[in-house]
Task: inverse folding
């Protein structure tokens, strides 16, 4: 179904143009995103980085129809969706073009449903037979380093790292065109973080586009083809990952690069960070 290449549009899987998102009531509107434009090609991995409150999750939610755009355009797999209502978004999500993984896997996993049923559900929604779904779920486990013994457990009977691997498997088992991962490793310890990053790197080669959101440049650096930097609701820099890391253009990106401990072995000194912050807010 969704894996049939003849049914897939050739253009970007996601194209956001001049996106505006506001929160709050009409009288007390707060702007969360302003003039954001970003295009994601099939099979590409794009990292979106920025500090807490910069609008990363808002961008993810807008692309998933979980928050409404107040301006601009969002094209998913060739379809203009910015003005879609709940029912149209639901229909689009059911088609399985875009899947998602959140920071807390408990948000994407039903606590009363076994891991096996949770993994089969997106396939069943797409009309795959129960037998075929069971086969595909088992075939997918290796790719996310999960053992078959876990299938009859509940989410509460798994570790945090295992749960997040289940959430990644659930998002990818239908072979969607795009998976949006919002801080997928931020709640994990470093061993689990490394493992998920490795899994994402491997999955990256399989034709699924990934949008990998993180406040940590170090996590994104080894996985993303391109990196986009959000600062106070605006994209201040977008480029090939190596360029953004080695020749950051915007002062805020420079701050991120300097203060990413995993990129340099040690964090920049506190004085340096404060100096850069002062420069930014001058
Ligand atoms: N549901 C909401 N209602 C009101 N303001 C919100 C809501 N969600 C986020 N915001 C605000 O929008 C801005 C961007 O938030 P968010 O997209 O969550 O940033 P990030 O994911 O980068 O931390 C912040 O100022 C935040 O306080
Ligand atoms: Mg967030």
Result:
């Amino acid at each position: 179904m969704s894996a049939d290449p003849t049914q897939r549009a050739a253009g970007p899987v996601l194209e956001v143009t001049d996106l505006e998102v506001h929160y709050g009531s009409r009288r007390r509107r707060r702007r969360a995103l302003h003039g954001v434009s970003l295009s994601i090609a099939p099979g590409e991995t794009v990292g979106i980085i920025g500090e807490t409150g910069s609008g990363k999750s808002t961008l993810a939610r807008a692309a998933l129809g979980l928050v409404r755009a107040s301006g601009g355009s969002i094209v998913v797999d060739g379809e203009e969706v910015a003005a879609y209502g709940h029912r149209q978004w639901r229909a689009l999500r059911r088609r399985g073009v875009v899947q998602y993984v959140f920071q807390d896997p408990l948000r994407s996993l039903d606590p009363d449903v076994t891991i096996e049923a949770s993994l089969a559900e997106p396939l069943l929604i797409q009309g795959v037979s129960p037998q075929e779904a069971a086969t595909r779920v088992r075939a997918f486990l290796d790719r996310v380093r999960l053992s078959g013994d876990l299938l009859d457990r509940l989410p509460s009977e798994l570790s945090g790292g295992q749960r997040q691997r289940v959430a990644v498997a659930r998002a990818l088992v239908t072979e969607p065109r795009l998976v949006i991962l919002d801080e997928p490793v931020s709640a994990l310890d470093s061993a689990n973080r490394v493992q998920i990053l490795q899994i994402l790197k491997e999955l990256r080669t399989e034709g699924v586009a990934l949008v990998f959101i993180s406040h940590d440049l170090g996590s994104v650096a080894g996985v993303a083809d391109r990196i986009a930097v959000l600062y106070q609701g605006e994209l201040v820099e977008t480029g090939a990952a190596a360029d953004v890391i080695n020749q950051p253009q915007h002062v805020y990106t420079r701050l991120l690069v300097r203060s990413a401990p995993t990129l340099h072995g040690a964090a920049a000194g506190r004085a340096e960070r404060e100096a850069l912050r002062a420069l930014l807010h001058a």
Remarks:
- The chain has a mean pLDDT of 89.
- The radius of gyration is 19 Å.
- DSSP finds twelve helices and ten strands in the chain.
